[in-house]
Amino acid sequence: MKVYDLIIAGAGPAGLTAGIYAARARLDVVLYEKMLPGGQVATTDLVENYPGFPKGISGSELMARMAEQAEKFNLNVESKSVENISRRGNLCLVKTEDGEGHPSKTVIVATGAEPKNLGVPGETEFKGRGISYCATCDGPLYQGKKVAVVGGGDSAVEEALFLTRFAEKVYLIHRRDKLRATQLLQNRTFENKKIEFVWDSVVTEIRGGKSLESAVIKNVKTEQLSELGVDGLFVYIGTVPNSDLFEEDIERDNRGFIITDQDMATSIEGVFAAGDVRSKLLYQIATAVGDGATAAFAAEKFIEEG
Question: Is the model's pTM score more than 0.90?
């Protein structure tokens, strides 16, 4: 069976960047991605803090450009999901959805993270019927309606602002009395008359009939319950890493993110991690791109020294 120099799992900013660097270095590399290239970034309406685009750029266009650049260097991208990664002697074995195990000298895990669920009654029942984790995807469905966003970080605030293009009212529900988002985004939110803040509060239940009709809100300071009538609820309370791919133990932090050194090397020899699946201070496109470049270069050096 063919042995690759490098297998990359995931085609977000980290995976595509790693692929570009590896392909340019003439490594025998394949990238596996179960969906279209782009990751979560592809669902972002406007990216303002990625260098080189002073007017901003849509997430989908940015990722399309990265994918086009990878294609230019003849990066082999295959539509497969990675199910399992293990170490077998001097090689890594990557098992994909087709049941095959593909041997490789090195692996870069760039599988990213997924939105965290609220974990409250009604959430499962109303997913796709009022509950969403992507305002860019579903925002236009709520033209002239009332919606709520749960969260207080950059993602929550950015999506709340985006939703004001369609909804007549946007409630921003946050468990604290101040936002965690960057000051620029906070200022825009406070200035927007369509946004109303629900401070010190969490969602405890989702209610409705054929579709979502209301959210039960609990004030964490007074413990008072209230019911907020909305047509849609958008959840942005953090992410869960897609890191459950390994037969043997790989070192992870208490949230499940993979721990690496400065060269993106994990606790498993020959396996590197990059992007949002990795434990780090800042989760941004710029840091994912840096991770991907470093991981590809480190994998190349590992092969040379092996």
Answer: no
